[in-house]
Amino acid sequence: MTPPWPLRKPSKSLTGEVRFIGAGVIAVASVWTLIKILSRSSSELRSGGRLQENVRRARKVELTERDIPIQIVGATIALLMLPIRFLLADFHQRNSHSQFDAPS
């Protein structure tokens, strides 16, 4: 006699499907988060650019509104991307023998 559904041992195919669905959910959540972060970051960069333009035109800007110039922020981001690029390249090189790589 077959036990009721909650007490059954999962089959291999069901386990694979659950893993596939879980990976899909994680992928969608990561893309969603990336989009939200990029939209907020771009609006903040535009705001910083407008503030920098006001400073350049010698308009009065409140002390609490003054920030690091946007050029310095952009240069810092660009410089910090270099080590990240090398870390990712190193990670990819070490794991390039993965079974998921396309055949050569």
Characterize this entry briefly.
With 104 residues, the protein is mainly alpha-helical. Helices cover 67% and strands 0% of the residues.
Structure description:
The chain has 104 residues and is mostly helical. The chain contains two helices and no strands. It is elongated and about 85 Å long. The protein starts with 11 loop residues before the first helix and ends in a 10-residue tail after the last helix. 0% of the residues are buried.
Task: Write a concise keyword list for the protein shown above.
2 helices, 104 residues, single chain
Write down the overall geometry: elongated
Strand runs, count:
0
Q: Number of helical runs?
A: 2
Question: Mean of the pLDDT scores?
Answer: 78
- Whole-number radius of gyration? 25 Å
SS class? mainly alpha
**CA(first)-CA(last) distance:** 50 Å
Q: Low-confidence spans: pLDDT under 50, at least 5 residues?
A: none
The biggest sheet amounts to: none
Q: Which percent bin holds the helix content?
A: 55-70%
> How much of the polypeptide forms β-strand, as a percent range?
under 5%
Sketch the topology as an H/E string, one letter per element. HH
Write the layout of secondary structure elements.
Elements: H1 12-56, H2 70-94
